[in-house]
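hey
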């Protein structure tokens, strides 16, 4: 029997948007039963804190810590939930394997758009937005404990900063498992937009090219076999876009790699 617990984070940058029902769709799909896992939805206390992103991440961390004997499989609408994920796994001091077509390594000083969802990995390693880290009582992760793969679309200053950092960059999925994964607990962050948008079309920020769905499934399976995976987060599609049903079906194939 798998030792998973599924945790839903049905918020986008701290907001519960009625049109964004991806997490609920996964819950209703029965994927938790397929993984032989219970399903929990987080319960943020928005009245206790001014910043809703902080409220969501505190609630996620608490949900993970309350299920400390199980491996959390988190379904989130954006990548900022990585803060609560790492806080929830804090006792394990995990290394991070970050699958993404984007670097999420911008700071308020480098971002051309100001989009918070493009900054969370930088925040995790102590760059930019440390008010969020302090608000969830989280110390930065060492850059040497982070592996990113694909990141085929980087903003100019973001790309310079990432490549000058001590983060390990794997240009292809094959590089992730060609060498030894860290011999320690591992948090796998999987943004579904890493998959070629021909197969994963309903993405808010689609990126042509990149690995196929089959390649991504194979990579996840290898990482689960080779690494000490203690937590997995899937950042999801955008249900308001065309071909949402097709994209959900592809996402379910990815999640089934955990079986």
């Amino acid at each position: 029997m798998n030792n998973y617990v599924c945790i839903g984070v049905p918020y986008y940058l701290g907001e519960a948007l009625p049109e964004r029902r991806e997490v609920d769709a996964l819950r209703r799909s029965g994927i938790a039963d397929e993984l032989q896992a219970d399903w929990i939805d987080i319960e943020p206390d928005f009245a206790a804190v001014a910043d809703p992103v902080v409220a969501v991440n505190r609630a996620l961390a608490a949900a993970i810590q309350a299920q400390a004997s199980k491996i959390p499989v988190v379904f989130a609408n954006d990548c900022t939930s990585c803060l609560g994920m790492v806080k929830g796994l804090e006792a394990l001091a995990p290394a991070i394997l970050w699958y993404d077509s984007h670097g999420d390594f911008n700071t308020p000083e480098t971002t051309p758009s100001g989009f918070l969802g493009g900054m969370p990995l930088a925040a995790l390693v102590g760059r930019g937005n440390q008010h969020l880290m302090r608000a969830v009582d989280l110390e930065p992760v060492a850059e040497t404990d982070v592996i990113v793969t694909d990141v085929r679309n980087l903003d100019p200053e973001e790309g310079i900063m990432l490549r000058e950092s001590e983060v390990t960059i794997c240009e292809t999925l094959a590089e992730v498992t060609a060498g030894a994964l860290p011999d320690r607990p591992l948090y796998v962050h999987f943004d579904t937009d890493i998959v070629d948008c021909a197969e994963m079309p309903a993405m808010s920020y689609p990126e042509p090219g990149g690995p196929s769905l089959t390649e991504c499934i194979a990579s996840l399976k290898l990482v689960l076999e080779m690494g000490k995976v203690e937590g997995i987060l899937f950042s999801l599609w955008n249900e308001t876009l065309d071909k949402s049903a097709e994209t959900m079906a592809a996402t379910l194939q990815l999640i089934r790699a955990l079986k």
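The longest strand covers residues 95-102. Strands lie at 4-9, 38-41, 71-76, 95-102, 146-153, 168-170, 185-191, 228-235.
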